[in-house]
Design brief:
This protein has helices at 5-8, 18-24, 31-38, 72-78, 81-87, 100-110, 122-125, 136-139, 148-153, 176-181, 192-205, 218-233, 249-263, 275-283, 296-301, 342-354, 356-363, 381-384, 401-411, 422-438, 444-460; strands at residues 50-51, 62-69, 91-98, 117-121, 133-134, 155-156, 159-160, 163-164, 166-167, 170-175, 212-215, 267-270, 288-292, 310-314, 331-334, 377-378. By secondary structure, the chain is an alpha/beta fold. The protein folds into two domains: 16-167 and 329-389, D-Maltodextrin-Binding Protein, domain 2, CATH 3.40.190; 170-327 and 416-460, 3-Layer(aba) Sandwich (D-Maltodextrin-Binding Protein, domain 2). The strands form six sheets. The chain has a five-stranded mixed sheet. It is globular, with a radius of gyration of 21 Å.
């Protein structure tokens, strides 16, 4: 997913690239090499997760090495270290930047050079569960204060093997100037039918408009589809029993809507953060963007002409009174079963994620992001219900992204689970078929039938 790196440029406060952003919010996947290692150690095929014994705060001592991807988030979490060491003077942590996608899986399997803890995409957690520490007892005090879907993505066989970090809710970004010119009232965009009608109205006013982006990267397009489906049935590719959910009304409704966008010429085909998409959105060709919160990264870093004209609201709903949020991306922290100092690793993550001092340091104003980290939100309900951790965005006309985003995070339906083979399904099967649907080469029924058959045969039955 490096195609947009050169075109993206940098943020005003850092040099985070497109790939760095995708890794940070958990959408880059485990990578081909890691997926190969993990295929042989799916949940239930090895020993159960190792449990971490509790210890009193006064007894926490020693040093722990924690892995992060070598990007801005590493720098952000380093700002948490001083308050951690003040709380636990006998303990120390070393935050190291590595290529987690390629290095973590081999280390977990071999036991050589394994870290004491690691940042990890939600999509990779369950595939490595057999090699992770069981954190069920440690997380017990925090379950009620954690957004439920994040607990679901980190649970296998009733055991919590990951510490939820961020939420990545779906939101609706739109160009208020374009909508105004087409006489579209943003307050009317409460259903996907209304969104489709608005796109038609915008195109009627400007025949060159293609208001809704249709993602060309198969993996990201599949995650976008998951966001739409998660709104309707609270699941993703599989249900709680691991059964495929593709042949359902929720998928059929979402795919039919996407097909209408494509067939009517209402969708702009491009890749997230690529030069084409930036030009489309900044120039007004694209003006209605149902996407994850982190779309605002482009508004802050890459748009020139349209600065100040973007706004944000809740996603539309599929049915009256239905969920107006879904999940698209996310990451957590894990502690390997072979960690040399799991207690220090746990205490650091506990401090960074659940203490006000920790999450304020991460999401609030810091040396890396002076205005705060605003491309993701905490998974902690008390943080989401609290005062804003980051400042309003000038690119959004200083409207409150925090207010809209936190409401969406708290409304994400529970039950979202990510199978260990998600990336393969997204890239090779469902994602590839979704591309053909958007290009007018497959029907909705064909996408469902072929995707179910291929994924069941090549991934589910072999996992």
């Amino acid at each position: 997913m490096d195609s947009g790196r050169a075109a993206l440029g940098t943020t005003s406060s850092s040099g985070m690239s497109r790939r760095s952003l995708l890794r940070a919010i958990g959408t880059a996947g485990v990578g081909t090499a890691a997926a190969g290692f993990l295929g042989a150690c799916a949940p239930g095929t090895s020993s159960t997760p190792t449990a971490l014994a509790s210890a009193s705060p006064s007894s926490v001592s020693g040093s722990a090495t924690l892995w992060f991807n070598d990007d801005d988030l590493l720098k952000v979490f380093r700002t948490v270290v001083p308050s951690f060491t003040a709380k636990y003077p006998k303990a120390s942590v070393k935050l190291v930047g590595v290529a987690i996608d390629t290095k973590l899986a081999p280390a977990l399997i071999s036991g050589a050079g394994v870290p004491d803890g690691s940042f990890l995409s939600d999509g990779s957690v369950l595939g490595q569960a057999a090699h992770l520490t069981d954190l069920t007892s440690q997380m017990a005090p925090y379950r009620a204060d954690t957004v439920q879907y994040k607990l679901d993505t980190n649970t296998v066989d009733g055991k919590l093997v990951g510490i939820p970090w961020d939420t990545d809710p779906g939101l609706l970004y739109y160009r208020e100037d374009v909508l105004s010119a087409a006489k579209v009232d943003p307050a009317s965009l409460t259903s996907y039918d209304a969104l489709l009608d608005a796109a038609r109205q915008i195109k009627a006013a400007n025949p060159k408009a293609q208001p809704i982006p249709l993602e060309q990267d198969p993996n990201l397009a599949t995650q976008w589809l998951m966001m739409l489906v998660n709104q309707q049935q609270g699941t993703g590719l599989v249900d709680a029993d691991g059964k495929l959910t593709i042949d359902t009304d929720a998928y059929r409704k979402a795919l039919t809507w996407i097909k209408a966008v494509a067939d009517e010429g209402l969708g702009a085909r491009s890749k997230f953060a690529g030069s084409a998409q930036i030009a489309q959105a900044d120039g007004g060709t694209v003006s209605l963007v149902p996407w994850a919160i982190w779309y605002n990264f482009l508004i802050q870093s890459s748009f020139k002409k349209s600065v100040g004209h973007w706004r944000v609201s809740q996603l539309p709903a599929w049915t009256t009174g239905g969920a107006r949020s879904g999940v698209m991306g996310g990451s957590s922290f894990v502690i390997p079963a072979k960690s040399a100092n799991p207690e220090v690793a746990w205490r650091f993550y506990e401090h960074a994620v659940y203490s006000p001092e920790g999450y304020r340091a991460v999401f609030g104003s810091n040396a890396v992001y002076p205005s705060g980290l605003n491309t993701a939100l905490p998974s902690v309900k008390s943080a989401l219900n609290g005062t804003s951790l980051f400042k309003p965005l000038a690119g959004l006309g200083s409207t409150s992204l925090w207010e809209v985003g936190t409401k969406a995070s708290l409304a994400i339906p529970a039950g979202y689970r990510i199978p260990s083979w998600f990336d393969q399904a997204a890239t090779t099967y469902l994602g590839a078929n979704l591309q053909k649907l958007m290009d007018g080469k497959m029907s909705v029924d064909d996408v469902i039938k072929k995707s179910v058959s291929d994924i069941q045969t090549n991934l589910v039955d072999r996992s």
